[in-house]
Specification:
Elements (H helix, E strand, L loop, with lengths): L7 E7 L2 E7 L4 E6 L4 E6 L4 H6 L5 E7 L2 E6 L3 E7 L2 E4 L2 H10 L7 E6 L2 E5 L5 E5 L2 E4 L8 E6 L5 E5 L4 E5 L2 E5 L4 H4 L5 E5 L2 E5 L6 E4 L4 E4 L10 E5 L2 E5 L4 E4 L4 E5 L2 H13 L2 H14 L4
Antiparallel strand pairs: 1-2, 2-3, 3-4, 5-6, 6-7, 7-8, 9-10, 10-11, 11-12, 13-14, 14-15, 15-16, 17-18, 18-19, 19-20, 21-22, 22-23, 23-24
Helix pairs in contact: 4-5
Length: about 290
């Protein structure tokens, strides 16, 4: 995808059509219609007006909530897709707050239980809830850089920052759980999800962790065949776990490998020690082409 850097996507069924949306690093969304077998792009952020003003930003979250796709970008901009190539800004109050009090505030993650209950967060403790069409700013400490906002199947909202600190609640009431030594356990948390009522997280190539809600601590998850973690997501009774060279699914009982594996990874590392940088790149391309595809 053109300009793709750190992308976000979500999908589901609208009416009788299976659809998905992808957000790229250049502010363009990509629309996939399974029924029509089409893949199109819609310029959400890089409009001529935004180019002139210099306000085009990277898309930092896409979610299918109710019957609409919602997307977020910097400066507390939350958009709703009302029709093909028609996106409506719905976060005027949070955007005005950001412009007035913190030009550095960002929008990193959004989720919702319904179109009447949507949450999003970003840097500087920037956390908002849309409840019955009214925006509420939920107070968090200003040093919280929120990386994940999750509306879980257990009817709780989980807010996780880059240092692994967690807030749990719903509506306007949230309980903050701070670890005394979070940096020693997890120096940087990129991704998090809630699977079977348990919060999981990981990032920076480290192992997968689970959050003990009663003790308020992260513990290494004892799951088979899972090494370093770059991305996690949970949906429809499965948890997707992606590493640098692997892609796996955990269904609560067993781990199913979709892509990569220990044999290919070990071969890649061994060859890397014995070859020059150029040879490593050439060997890696061939190895990836030969890996098992889902």
């Amino acid at each position: 995808l053109d300009g793709y850097s750190h992308g976000y996507c979500d999908g589901g069924t609208i009416g009788h059509n299976k659809v998905a949306f992808f957000g790229s690093g250049n502010g363009i969304t990509y629309y996939l219609d399974y029924n029509a077998d089409t893949f199109k792009h819609e310029e959400l952020l890089l409009t001529p007006e935004r180019r002139k003003k210099g306000t085009a930003r990277i898309i930092r979250g896409i979610k299918l909530i109710g019957k609409h796709f919602y997307a977020g970008d910097g400066g507390n901009h939350i958009w709703r897709r009302d029709a093909p190539k028609q996106w409506t800004l719905i976060s005027q109050e949070p955007r005005a707050y950001c412009n007035r009090f913190s030009n550095a505030c960002d929008t990193k993650s959004l989720d919702g239980f319904s179109e009447e209950e949507i949450y999003f967060g970003g840097n500087d403790g920037n956390f908002w809830a849309l409840l019955n069409h009214t925006w509420h700013k939920i107070p968090l400490k200003p040093d919280w850089n929120i990386e994940n906002v999750i509306c879980a199947d257990n009817a709780k909202v989980y807010v996780v920052d880059t240092r692994g600190r967690v807030a749990i609640g719903r509506g306007t009431k949230f309980r903050l759980i701070e670890q005394a030594h979070a940096d020693d356990i997890m120096p940087y948390l990129w991704e998090a999800c809630v699977f079977q009522g348990v919060l999981y997280g990981g990032g920076a190539g480290g192992p997968l962790y689970r959050f003990d809600e009663q003790k308020g601590v992260w513990i290494k998850a004892n799951l088979p065949l899972i090494g370093s973690v770059e991305y996690v997501a949970a949906k429809d009774g499965m948890m997707l776990i992606a590493g640098a060279w692997t892609l796996k699914v955990y269904n609560g009982k067993e781990t199913i490998e979709l892509y990569g594996g220990e044999k290919e990874l070990n071969e890649l590392l061994l060859q890397g020690f014995m070859q020059s940088a150029a040879e490593v790149m050439e060997h890696t391309d061939k190895l990836l082409d030969g890996m098992k595809k889902p």
